[in-house]
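Re: the request from the purification team.
They wanted to know what the chain is likely to look like in 3D before they choose a buffer screen. I agreed to run a prediction and write the result into the notebook, where they can find it.
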Amino acid sequence: MSETTSQTLQYRLDGPEQAPVLILGPSLGTTWHMWDRQVPELARQWRVFRFDLPGHGGAPAHPATSIPELAERLLATLDEIGVQRFGYVGCSIAGAIGAELALRRPDRIASLALVAASPRFGTADEFRQRGVIVRANGLDPMARSAPERWFTPGFAAAQPAIVEWAVQMVRTTDPGCYIASCEALAAFDIRAELGRITVPTLVLVGAEDHVTGPAEARTLVAGIPDARLALVPGASHLAPVEQPAAVTDLLVHHFSTAWYNPSDTSTGLTVLPDRGPVPSLSATVGPIAEIAPVEQPEAVTTGRPDPYEAGMRVRRQVLGDAHVDRAMAAADDFTGDFQELITRYAWGEVWTREGLDRRTRSAVTLTALVAGGHLEELAFHTRAALRNGLTPAEIKEVLIQTAVYCGVPAANTAFRVARTVIQEETTPEA
């Protein structure tokens, strides 16, 4: 196990020291051990580098709230040990890291495999809601629901020891780092950039994955010019655990035949020593045509930047896409200008200021709404406060403070509204 700092990741190396480096990245809530059954075969041909996400598998709890930050920490770790170019396999959130590296640092990646990945993971609201539940209840709800998300029912029933191992991986994760990873996934969206990924790419997905399944995989393959799809039957989200032999064979074939070498100006590809034909698998693999990039209009500079775009981004992050979409859909000729005003000035001018963090701004907002008796807005700003990191206990303290300065009747009503919202937002799904 490696020494780590706040700017590097915990890692492990296996295989010949002089072999090409192949990185294996884990999904959210797991550790590098999710790749244990691939390592013996892969380490015969590659120097296998596995890493843990912050706060996972006993790694130091230095939260990272964006995919670019996680990618930079991985590169800093590789720089420390002198690794410049590498093949990369990433599952789920680690797939997002791999796609980010392929977009921003294609000079470092020789070949790419995205496992159970997506150009956008669900919706931002879903992941921020997950963060609210963890902040209020700890990781137990996520741990108990992990087997249903990760494995097919038949596998879960037949392999209780692996199911318990999966549950314990989640339970031992640092909650703050888990929440930060949810924030990173909430903000991740590269749908418009897929055409710029130029490295040879295998997109691998379990046929029964209901988290990031075949539909998301096909979106990746349709957008990445040099991408192929591998559909693994009898597997859900953690296909490397559920169908280890099939996944291993697909990875060996891909990285043995598609290793990009920029120094070779003829084909650009280096064929590594082949281990013979890949065993017959019930998988579909086929080339996809290149998608032409969409030309963007030139931006017009008019002096001070218009705060509308930044305001809309923050408004969605704080209140949630669903709430904002409803408000914008309900706008008409009479109310549309007002929606534009609050987006531009309340959210673009005030909520984007650096003087207070969002948790503090939520506390101030709750107090002001209690004082003004604005109960409808108090309800959705209580939801926003939970998303911004205030715990139910902290919201309670804010409301107790309002009883002194805004009056007991106002605080009494506020408690009733806030309690209903908190119960709705922090109760895990059955």
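For the purification team: The chain is about 50% helix and 10% strand.
Please add any questions underneath this entry.
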